[in-house]
Recover the amino acids of this structure.
C-alpha cells in the first residue's frame, strides 16, 4: 500500500510520500537509543511540563488537524474535532497522574521482615524505545493513548502509522518536537508494513504495541515472541449490545445508533451485534431501524453529516462482501444494504436480521455502518449469543435489573462491560480485550506500567 493521502470522499490522491530507506531508519534508531539514555533520567515534573505544552499546542491546532484527519480517513469533521480534544485531555491526565501511578510500592512490613530485608520496594523503570504500530481509524487517539503514558514513564517512541494517514503521522512527531521534547523522544517512521519486522528485530527496540487487525497482531506478536520482547495488542472486536425487557427502550435504541455508526462504523469498540430479548425485540428493532434510516450520509466536512465514507475502497468492498454473503444465506435487510450513487467510498447504514452462525458476518468483524440483530429468548441465550464470537473487546448491556447486571458482568467474555451506556475509552480506565481481541491493557495505571521494568529492590540490614 503506498504511503499517501487519498481523500475517501472522492478518491483523489492528494499527496504521496517516499518510504524511508535503511540509512534513515538506522539514523532514527540510533537517535532513539541515544535519547533514551538521558531522557530516562529526566524528572517526572519536566516530562509532565512538556506533555502539558503538547496538549496546549494540540488545542491550538485542533481545527487544522481535525480537517487533516477527515481528509485522510473520512471521519465526520465534528468527530475529528472531538478526537483532538480528547487527546489533549488525556495528555493532561497523564501529566497530572503519572507521579502517583509510577510511585514506588512498599510491601507489608510483615512480608519485608519475613524476607530477611530491612527494606523492600517495587520500582517502575522505563524499558527503552517502544515501537507503536497504529491504525488509521482514530489516527490521533490511538497514538496518544500509547505516547502519553510511554513518555511519562521515561520511554521513547517510534511510530509506524497506517500508510493512509501520513500527514497525521508527521504532525504527531512535529507536535512533540514543538512542545520541547528532545528530537529522539518521539519519531515517526514513514515505512511500509513490510519493514516493521526488521525494526522490531533490532536490539535497540525493547517492546512493541499494536492496534489493528488480527493478522497484523499475529505478525507482530510472532516476531516479538521470537525476540522475547514485550507486546501489547488491541485487535478487532465484534461487541455485543444486549437489550433486556427492563431497559429504557427509547434511550437504548437511540444510543445503539451512535454506538454502531461512530467513526463511520469503523471502530473496534463499536457495538456490532444487537442481541435483544424476544419480549422487546420488535419494539427495539422498529426504533433502531428508524434511527439508522434517519442518519445523514454525506460530505464528512459538513457539520450536519452523521456518516462519511469508509476509509478505503478495499474496506468498502470487504463490507459489501459480508452483507452480500449474509443476504444470499437468507438474512433480511431491514435498511441500507448497498452503496449510494456518486463518488467516494460510502456505504449506507444497514441493519440485518435473521443472521445465523453459518454466515460470515456472524463470526467476522464488520468494519463499517452495518448492524446485525439477534433475538434471545432469555438471559442465558443472550449470554450464549454474546460470547459466540472469537473476539472479546468490550460489551454493552441494557437492563435495570441488578441480578441480570451481576450475571452479565460475571459471564460476558470481554475486557469491558458497559451497563446502560455505550463503550468509550477514558484515560483513567484500563482498555483492552481477551480472546482474539488481543492482550495487555492501555490507559490507566495498568497502561503506563505495561512498558516498565517492574523492579524489586531488596536491601539487607
Amino acid at each position: 500500500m503506498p504511503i499517501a493521502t487519498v481523500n475517501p470522499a472522492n478518491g483523489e490522491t492528494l499527496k504521496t510520500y517516499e518510504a524511508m530507506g535503511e540509512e534513515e531508519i538506522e539514523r532514527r534508531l540510533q537517535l532513539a537509543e541515544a535519547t533514551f539514555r538521558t531522557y530516562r533520567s529526566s524528572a517526572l515534573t519536566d516530562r509532565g511540563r512538556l506533555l502539558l505544552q503538547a496538549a496546549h499546542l494540540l488545542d491550538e491546532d485542533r481545527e487544522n488537524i481535525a480537517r487533516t484527519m477527515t481528509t485522510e480517513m473520512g471521519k465526520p469533521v465534528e468527530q475529528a474535532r472531538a478526537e483532538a480534544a480528547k487527546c489533549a485531555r488525556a495528555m493532561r491526565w497523564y501529566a497530572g497522574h503519572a507521579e502517583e501511578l509510577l510511585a514506588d510500592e512498599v510491601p507489608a512490613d510483615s512480608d519485608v521482615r519475613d524476607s530477611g530485608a530491612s527494606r523492600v520496594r517495587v520500582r517502575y523503570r522505563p524499558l527503552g524505545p517502544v515501537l507503536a504500530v497504529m491504525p488509521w481509524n482514530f489516527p490521533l487517539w490511538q497514538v496518544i493513548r500509547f505516547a502519553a503514558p510511554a513518555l511519562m514513564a521515561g520511554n521513547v517512541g517510534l511510530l509506524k502509522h497506517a500508510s493512509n494517514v501520513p500527514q497525521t503521522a508527521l504532525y504527531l512527531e512535529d507536535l512533540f518536537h514543538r512542545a520541547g521534547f528532545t528530537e529522539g523522544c518521539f519519531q515517526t517512521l514513514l515505512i511500509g508494513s513490510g519493514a516493521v519486522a526488521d525494526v522490531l528485530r533490532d536490539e535497540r527496540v525493547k517492546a512493541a504495541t499494536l492496534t489493528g487487525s488480527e493478522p497484523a497482531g499475529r505478525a507482530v506478536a510472532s516476531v516479538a515472541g521470537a525476540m522475547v520482547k514485550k507486546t501489547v495488542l488491541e485487535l478487532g472486536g465484534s461487541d455485543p449490545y444486549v437489550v433486556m425487557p427492563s431497559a429504557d427502550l427509547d434511550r437504548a435504541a437511540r444510543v445503539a445508533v451512535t454506538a454502531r455508526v461512530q467513526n463511520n462504523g469503523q471502530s473496534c469498540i463499536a457495538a456490532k451485534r444487537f442481541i435483544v430479548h424476544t419480549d422487546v425485540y420488535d419494539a427495539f428493532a422498529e426504533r433502531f431501524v428508524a434511527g439508522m434510516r434517519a442518519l445523514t450520509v454525506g460530505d464528512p466536512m459538513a457539520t450536519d453529516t452523521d456518516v462519511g465514507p469508509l476509509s478505503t475502497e478495499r474496506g468498502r468492498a470487504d463490507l459489501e462482501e459480508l452483507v452480500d454473503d449474509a443476504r444470499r444465506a437468507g438474512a433480511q435487510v431491514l435498511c441500507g444494504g448497498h452503496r449510494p450513487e456518486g463518488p467516494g467510498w460510502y456505504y449506507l447504514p444497514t441493519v440485518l436480521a435473521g443472521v445465523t452462525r453459518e454466515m460470515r458476518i456472524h463470526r467476522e468483524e464488520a468494519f463499517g455502518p452495518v448492524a446485525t440483530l439477534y433475538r434471545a429468548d432469555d438471559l442465558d441465550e443472550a449470554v450464549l449469543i454474546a460470547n459466540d464470537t472469537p473476539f472479546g473487546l468490550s460489551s454493552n448491556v441494557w437492563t435495570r435489573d441488578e441480578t441480570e447486571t451481576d450475571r452479565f458482568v460475571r459471564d460476558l467474555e470481554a475486557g469491558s462491560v458497559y451497563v446502560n451506556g455505550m463503550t468509550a475509552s477514558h484515560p483513567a480506565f484500563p482498555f483492552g480485550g481477551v480472546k482474539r481481541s488481543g492482550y495487555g491493557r492501555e490507559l490507566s495505571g495498568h497502561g503506563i506500567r505495561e512498558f516498565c521494568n517492574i523492579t524489586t529492590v531488596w536491601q539487607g540490614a
